[in-house]
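Hello,

Following up on my earlier ticket. Below are the two sequence lines again, exactly as submitted.
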Amino acid sequence: MLQISCWNVNSVKIRADSVKKLLQQYSPDFLLLQELKCEENVFPFEVFEDLNYNISLKCQKSYNGVAILSKHIIDEIKYDFPNNPCSDEARFIEVASQTALGYCRVICVYVPNGGISKERYDVKLEFLKALKEYLVSIANNDEFLIIGGDFNVAPEELDVHDATSLMDEVCFTPPERRAMRAILNNNLVDLFRIKNPNLKQFTWWDYRAGAYQKNQGMRIDFLLSNYKLLKYFDSFNVAHNFRSNDRPSDHVPIFASFSLNAL
DNA sequence: ATGGTCGCCATGCGA
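Thanks for your patience. The regenerated structure is below:
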């Protein structure tokens, strides 16, 4: 049994108790967090200290920030990938550990939103392209590989509430969708979609305009695996009830479980 | 077409 969870928390300090509850309730082997929004010296280590997770961080003041919390001993750690156009921002962390299934490489990524300006939009496309090149280079290695994160792209019409009205909106423009599909078409599998081919299920709803109440969201958070790990894929869960919490993140946690019995 | 809400940390900016 191997379970991986992924959540854009939109401030780990505000959401620390909620993160702790997730760890206690689900006990994932790995928890991938995005948008920590704090520096390492104010990360709420004390909230998690009795839970026996190894915490790997890439932090940045006020913005971005990614973490991987692991039950397993961290054997390798990387803080960047080749040709990342946002190397000065905290958007990527990678670890590798021995697990019950075997040696497993885990990547946590926070793709730029790209909605601020044309320049940032172009940087987003470059980021996705460089990330794809990196993932292609490692996907067929003889080890398990899982990538999770907030990709800020909804690749298909089924991944948004209203494809017609969103066609020119950032996160759903054709170039972004092509860049995302290029990642999904290169030896990696969109674990939610392979399990739910026709299900309209979102992972993010805007705080504004009652978007959650109207279920006007997008599926922009993903867990992807290589084919070596896909063989053991068991189940996928979107914890959409987290969006009803007091002071929710605008994203909800997602979970993928793998088991030797899945074969 | 506009503005709606959060979280950063003290003000507008990013999402």
